[in-house]
Design goal:
single chain; 341 residues; alpha+beta; ten-stranded mixed beta sheet; three-stranded antiparallel beta sheet
Length: 341
């Protein structure tokens, strides 16, 4: 089955090239159905780290020049990268590459702008049944995603809107802050290491809230903030993602500081690094606080586009390819009371 998406700048429809597609199909069809115990072993933390080592770190991979084949097939623009192309001599270095984001990923100047946290293919949705973007229970269970014991954030974000960003293996794997504001909570929820491949998402149902994830709660209604209410940024691990390294920096990639409660984060700055593979970021907004970009909303229902997600969930779900720091939404006047501090 083809999986197509919309290139945002050109408005063209492209077909995704999957890396390791046969392995994903084997794990999430035959293995999951016929050997559930083995399926659980494959998707645990230890096996995920082992698979990552074999694919991205091993000397065998380097000797086989697998990184050169991957560079050629993935279409990575080496002109964006810091350092020289010769420096990217292993798969791990390719996945952890740094780019001149201040030049090649310009950011809108509007202080009310919400920007993409990563280079990814994205969808938007709403928990509000009266919204035209209503999507319930397709990608994650809301309470499970945020944490069932996090009652304050569940109440505050209930019936809100969300955006899902799916990073593919060839993408730039740093995430950046989508808004400016003060971090008011930061925590990790343990879980599995399921793949973020569309076929895995469709076959498993709600994998993003079953995987290990790091949640950053940001209050943007503070001086210097984006004024889009309280925002949850959920970074989700995936198969062969060994870790999510928090590395917030306001100047290039230098002078990194740990992310935690009390930290004021500026919009568009590097926040963390997925090591390595494919993964997902989910942003959750309070109800009525954000208006998503029209083209992203329209693209989701674009006719004539083959999408594994559309077919699997029986509703139009066409992704838009976006770049980190792209405009994805704008803050609205908030009709709901905000949390007081």
């Amino acid at each position: 089955m083809l999986h197509q998406y919309v290139e945002r700048e050109s408005r063209t429809v492209s077909t995704e090239k999957f890396f390791g597609n046969r392995g994903i199909r084997f794990v999430y069809s035959q293995l999951r159905e016929n050997a559930p115990l083995m399926f659980r072993v494959v998707t645990n933390a230890r096996m995920s780290r082992l698979l990552a080592f074999v694919n991205f770190h091993s000397l065998l991979n380097e000797k086989l020049n697998g990184h050169r084949d991957f560079l050629k097939a993935s279409g990575i623009d080496l002109r964006e990268c810091l350092g020289t192309p010769a420096h990217l001599d292993t798969p791990q270095k390719i996945f952890e590459r740094k780019i001149r984001y201040w030049d090649c990923r310009p950011m809108p100047r509007d202080p009310a702008a919400v920007v993409s946290p990563c280079d990814a293919r994205m969808l938007v949705g709403s928990f509000d049944s009266s919204s035209s973007l209503f999507i319930k229970g397709k990608f994650f269970d809301f309470e499970e995603l945020i944490g069932r014991n996090k009652l304050t954030w569940r109440k505050l974000l209930n019936n809100g809107d969300f955006a899902v960003f799916r990073l593919t293996p060839e993408r730039y794997h740093y995430t950046h802050t989508p808004v400016a504001g003060k971090v008011i909570d930061f925590y990790t929820i343990p879980g599995r290491y399921h793949a973020c491949h569309p076929e895995a998402v469709v076959s498993l149902v709600t994998p993003y809230s079953k995987n290990k994830r790091v949640i950053t709660i940001i209050d943007t209604d503070v001086p210097g903030g984006t004024q889009v209410g309280v925002v949850a940024m959920v970074e989700v691990v995936a198969l062969m993602i060994g870790d999510i390294v928090q590395c917030y920096s306001e100047k290039g990639y230098d002078d990194q500081v740990p992310v935690g409660s009390g930290l004021f984060v500026k919009k568009g700055c590097p926040k963390s690094l997925f090591r390595p593979g494919s993964s997902t970021v989910v942003l959750i907004f309070q109800r009525g606080c954000v208006e998503f970009a029209n083209d992203i909303v329209w693209n989701m229902r674009l006719p004539g586009v083959e999408s594994i997600l559309s077919n699997g969930f029986s509703q139009p779900l066409v992704e838009t390819d976006v770049l980190v720091r792209d405009l994805i939404g704008t803050a609205l006047q908030k009709p709901v009371p905000l949390l007081s501090h």
